């Protein structure tokens, strides 16, 4: 973590912490080599607290030691420590050979203690920033879901020096914050970039409710898709024979597309089947009709017409004005003074008639003559128009 303090005409005291573990001497040399600075001198109250807030229990080397004069703790600029109230309880122990000092956060305050200088610990460096110094910022940050659109570089060798500004634009469907799609960062005088928020996807929030439908979705952000399926007993309008679902998608403006185009209406299941009949239909929406015709050799009960209809009503049921079914020829017609012999009344079956004793069919002399009627494809018994004549 890094911070900067005491801004004055682009000259700042800059501080950065590192978790790399080094002994005190190497930590001091590292601050010189990397930052042209030194180990931190805690002369600004709460500076360390701000730096190491995410690691409050960690020990950090600072620029305080008694290596020059045993028992006398001095900062790296040679100034003696003046605030003894920041030592941890019992530190430093009199006559201790532990000459180097670390800081830790305890009870939300900075506390010092001394340790053997060969111990390897994280450290805090301080260095001077400045617009006209040797400080440069590292490579421009990569911002997910954003594009770098402009960089205003310092004229000096085109380096990313303090004052350089870089502008990012969020990708389509993403924003830094509500309706803010561009953000500019600046190389600060301490050599790090000012903060930039993430580009987050537009959120369409909860999809709209569609009456009589269930919604299925995994996300509500840009590009997300919600699938609607009608509840049992309902069907999408207009119907689509290839797909039983309708989709909405979260667009780049935070709206669900097609939100007014999904309608579920009551529908009937497929029309019921009837024995010995064929049914035809092209819709199961409310108001649709199903046409029934009897198979060959059968007729509708009542023998009134060759077609019957059912209607899909607004409760999702197929209904008809009267019940109907397909039947065969029924019992053969009765002839006076005749006996009928048949075993079936279905299509192409025969009914054989013979006259009772003392009677004979008109126009015949043979009392044993037999007349046959046939059940035709229209459900009618077909035969000669005859009668048994005679008698005592």
How would you describe the overall organization of this protein?
InterPro entries: C-type_lectin-like, C-type_lectin-like/link_sf, Compl-Cell_Adhes-Reg, CTDL_fold, Sushi/SCR/CCP_sf, Sushi_SCR_CCP_dom. Residues 10-126 form the C-type lectin domain. Keywords: Disulfide bond, Glycoprotein, Repeat, Signal, Sushi. With 392 residues, the protein is mostly beta strands. It has five domains: 2-128, Roll (Mannose-Binding Protein A, Chain A), CATH 3.10.100.10; 146-201, Complement Module, domain 1; 213-266, Complement Module, domain 1 (Ribbon), CATH 2.10.70; 277-327, Complement Module, domain 1, CATH 2.10.70; 338-390, no CATH class. The protein is 4% helix and 38% strand. It is built from two helices and 30 strands. It has helices at residues 24-35, 47-51, and strands at residues 2-8, 11-22, 38-39, 60-69, 72-75, 100-106, 109-115, 121-128, 146-152, 165-170, 174-175, 182-186, 200-201, 213-216, 225-230, 234-237, 245-249, 263-266, 277-280, 289-294, 299-300, 308-312, 318-319, 326-327, 338-341, 350-355, 359-361, 370-375, 381-382, 388-390. A four-stranded antiparallel beta sheet has the order 1-2-8-3. A four-stranded antiparallel beta sheet has the order 5-4-6-7, with helices on one face. The chain has a four-stranded antiparallel beta sheet with strand order 19-20-22-23, with no helix packed on it. Strand 4 and strand 5 (72-75) form a beta hairpin. The radius of gyration is 49 Å and the shape is rod-shaped. The chain starts with a strand and ends with a strand. 26% of the residues are buried.
């Amino acid at each position: 973590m890094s911070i900067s303090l005491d801004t004055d005409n682009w000259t700042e005291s800059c501080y950065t912490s590192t978790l790399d573990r080094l002994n005190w001497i190497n930590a001091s040399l590292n601050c010189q080599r990397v930052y042209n600075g030194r180990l931190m001198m805690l002369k600004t109250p709460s500076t360390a607290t701000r730096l190491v807030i995410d690691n409050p229990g960690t020990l950090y080397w600072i620029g305080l030691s008694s290596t020059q004069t045993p028992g006398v703790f001095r900062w790296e600029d040679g100034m003696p420590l003046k605030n003894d109230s920041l030592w941890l309880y019992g530190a430093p122990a009199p006559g201790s050979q532990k000459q180097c000092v670390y800081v830790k956060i305890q009870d939300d305050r900075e506390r010092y203690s001394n340790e053997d200088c060969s111990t390897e610990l994280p450290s805090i460096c301080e260095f001077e920033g400045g617009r006209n110094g040797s400080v440069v910022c590292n490579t421009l940050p990569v911002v997910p879901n954003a594009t770098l659109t402009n960089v205003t570089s310092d004229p000096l060798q085109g380096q990313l020096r303090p004052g350089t500004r870089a502008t990012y634009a969020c990708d389509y469907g993403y924003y830094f914050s509500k309706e803010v799609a561009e953000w500019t960062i600046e190389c600060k005088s301490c050599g790090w970039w000012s903060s930039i928020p993430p580009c987050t996807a537009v959120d369409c929030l909860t999809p709209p409710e569609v009456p009589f439908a269930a919604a299925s979705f995994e996300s509500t952000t840009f590009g997300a898709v919600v699938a609607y399926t009608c509840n049992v007993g309902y069907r999408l309008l207009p119907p689509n024979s290839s797909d039983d679902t309708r989709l909405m998608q979260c667009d780049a403006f935070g709206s669900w597309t097609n939100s007014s185009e999904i309608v579920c209406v009551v529908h009937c299941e497929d029309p019921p089947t009837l024995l010995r009949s064929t049914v035809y239909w092209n819709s199961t929406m409310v108001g649709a009709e199903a046409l029934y015709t009897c198979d060959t050799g059968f007729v509708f009960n009542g023998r009134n017409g060759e077609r019957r209809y059912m209607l899909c009503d607004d409760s999702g049921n197929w209904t008809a004005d009267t019940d109907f079914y397909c039947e065969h020829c029924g019992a053969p017609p009765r002839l006076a003074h005749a006996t009928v012999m048949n075993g079936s009344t279905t299509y192409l079956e025969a009914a054989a008639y013979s006259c009772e004793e003392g009677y004979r069919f008109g126009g015949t002399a043979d009392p044993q003559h037999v007349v046959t009627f046939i059940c035709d494809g229209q459900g009618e018994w077909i035969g000669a128009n005859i009668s048994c004549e005679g008698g005592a």
